[in-house]
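writing this on my phone so excuse typos. first protein, seq and then structure
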Amino acid sequence: MTAIGDIAPPESDELLTVVGPTASGKTALAMRLAERFDGEIVGADSVQIYRLFDAGSGKPTAEERARVPHHLVDLVDPLDPFDAARFVNLADQAIAEVRKRGRCPILCGGTFLWVKALLKGLVPSAPADAALRARYAKLAEENGRAALHEQLRRVDPDSAARLAPNDLVRVSRALEVYELTGKPQAAWHAEHQFQTVRHKARLLGVERSREQIDERIALRSRQWLDDHWIDEVRDLLERGYGEARAMSSVGYQQVQDYLAGDLQADQLHEAVVRATRKLVRRQRTWLRDEPVCWVAP
């Protein structure tokens, strides 16, 4: 385990990249690195990218954003389409602009597919098909998202294991790729192998035990629920954002279930904790073979 004081300054073309499980303290580490190396933070989070998703997304606070400039946070409307390709384009621009100012860009976020796409290239596959997506959305509405996920499991079990059943957008995309190409999305990923080097990167993460992560998840979830998370989700639904992609993310889905009467008040916190722990297990799997330098909290 490395002390933050032992981290060497980045080379001119090197991208410091903070990764790790949710609730591990990525934002705090990125802030410390930015203040040490005169940096600005480029977000890589598929919920924080959206405006209005604040209470349950772990967005940097107003005080943190005042201390260190942040990019790709609060960027798009909740119903705007946003994928890895668009993220890569905007992140490239932000990184170039930060360097043009003579400062150090620091990538930080838990959406590791986006991080991999930025650092190692996008996986080639079929273009989007609006008709197919509409059909999958109708199937999910009629039979439930779990049924759509089961359909994916039958044709692409590796992708199904990686994706949460409630992640309608990514489950639909994986089915779309299979239907259009006849090849599972997981096979496209395996062939690509993310071997292209788009950015020379040094991966850093906060070292936490599983027990510490669990404790932090439970505490954070309780704080957010006691704050205004439930009111935020209710307001988003009233504004017509129920179909927004971020609404299916961990935590937001469970709060929706509570507001719909599918969870009782005394069940909500534990449901959020369980879903977040599942996400952490997937994140740990993604990072298992990556050369992360783990830093002391």
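second protein below, same order as before
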Amino acid sequence: MAKVIHTSGKRKTAIARATVRSGKGRIRINKKPVEFYQPELARLKIQEPLELAGKQTNRIDINIDVYGGGVMGQAEATRTAIARGIIEWFKDDDLQKLFQNYDRALLVNDTRRKEPKHPMGRGARKKRQKSYR
């Protein structure tokens, strides 16, 4: 039976689920190759764990399904899912330390959420001005 690994990543309300299996180094996000992912800044963010891992990733295929949130939230959730999948596939402690030292968010979900709106204001912090004159 072929080895298959499932991982996930979260950022704000974006959720990315990655499936890692042996292959030729193809990375697909929502069934499209990562090379066509737009905008470019998000694509570069997604490719960070692949650059750090180097040539090892030429032996695996990664398929990612991502939904929810915005463009950058999806990109960061995707990179977390990819990094976790690579580490679980190769079981390499040195690679894990490299990812951890580069950016902890590669392996740990970002738990920050939007603060809820409060009464008497237009948002979480903004309040209506008071005038006593």
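The chain has a mean pLDDT of 90. thats all i got for now
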